[in-house]
Structures are given as C-alpha cells and as structure tokens.
Amino acid sequence: MQKVINLLAVLSFVGTAGIIGGGTYLYLQKDALIDGVKKQIVDAAVAGVARSLPAIVDSAMPELPNETGSVLPTETGPALPF
Asked: 10, 14, 20, 81: which has the fewest Cβ within 10 Å?
C-alpha cells in the first residue's frame, strides 16, 4: 500500500511541476505568442481581401461597347457659335 501512495505522490508532484512549468513558459512567452497570433490574423485578412478584390473590381467595371457612334453629329441643327 505504501508503494501505491508513493506512486500517487510522485505523479502528483510531476503533474504540479508540469502545470507550474507550463504556466511559467506561457507567462514568459506571452508577448511572442500574442504577436504570432496577430500576424496570423493579419495574414488571413490580407489573403481574404486579395481573393475577393478581383471579383469586386470586375463587378465595378462597366462593359466596353463593341461599336462606337460617329465622331460628328448626324443631325443638322442650329450652328453653335465657336
């Protein structure tokens, strides 16, 4: 029974040390982790805009006509003074 209790004590110590070690690592690396997440968010936003931008530009551009009218007006009317 003593061996079981000792094993539980060792496992408890290892678990507690792991929690303390992980918390310390996160506390010391929090600035780098936050900057990494910010960079990932910015990269994802830029990629999303870059994917949707061609469709937005294409929908905003009017269609070019196949033919154009004549250069001079064909109707005769009162002459405009120049």
From this structure: 81
